[in-house]
Amino acid sequence: MRSVLCVLAVLVLLSGCDQLGIDTPKVQAEKREADGKAIGGACRNGGRAIEDCYLLNRKADKAAVYAGWREMDEYMRENKLEAVTPQLKPEDFAKTKPKPASEGDGGDGTDTTAVAGDGGKPDKADAHASH
């Protein structure tokens, strides 16, 4: 009798897992679909072709991306909206390799010998501080 009550108590506690933030396969699938639709809608709003959107977001569910792209296309046509021209270029986000640590490197990739925009000259305050 006691083991039956323990099992029931555990089952009751586990039934509230959704409130604890534990993702079930159903919740994960819904999130993937919502993310895919958001990606597709953003691609269409940005004037990207669906093929480009697929290439840029390879991990996203293609069916969800297409559904979001199509929904946004219908919305934009109904409301006579033009695509938003992207202001940032993809090369602005290209991953660059971090600089190896050197004499003038603070270890975090920032140059400690020069201030940006001064042509690589050391800061005057740094020159006086070293004397």
Secondary structure elements and pairings:
Elements: H1 2-14, H2 17-20, H3 25-45, H4 50-56, H5 62-78, H6 124-129
Shape: elongated
Which secondary-structure class do the elements indicate? mainly alpha
Order of helices and strands: HHHHHH
Task: Outline the low-pLDDT stretches.
Answer: 109-131
How many strand units? Answer: 0
How far apart the termini lie comes to 84 Å
- Rg to the nearest angstrom? 27 Å
The level of helicity is: 40-55%
Strand content: under 5%
Mean pLDDT: 75
The number of helical runs is 6
Main β sheet profile: none
Condensed summary:
With 131 residues, the protein is mainly alpha-helical. The protein has helices at 2-14, 17-20, 25-45, 50-56, 62-78, 124-129.
Give a structural overview:
- With 131 residues, the chain is mainly α.
- The protein has six helices and no strands.
- It has helices at 2-14, 17-20, 25-45, 50-56, 62-78, 124-129.
- α3 (25-45) packs across α5 (62-78).
- The radius of gyration is 27 Å and the shape is elongated.
- The termini are far apart.
- Residues 109-131 have low confidence and may be disordered.
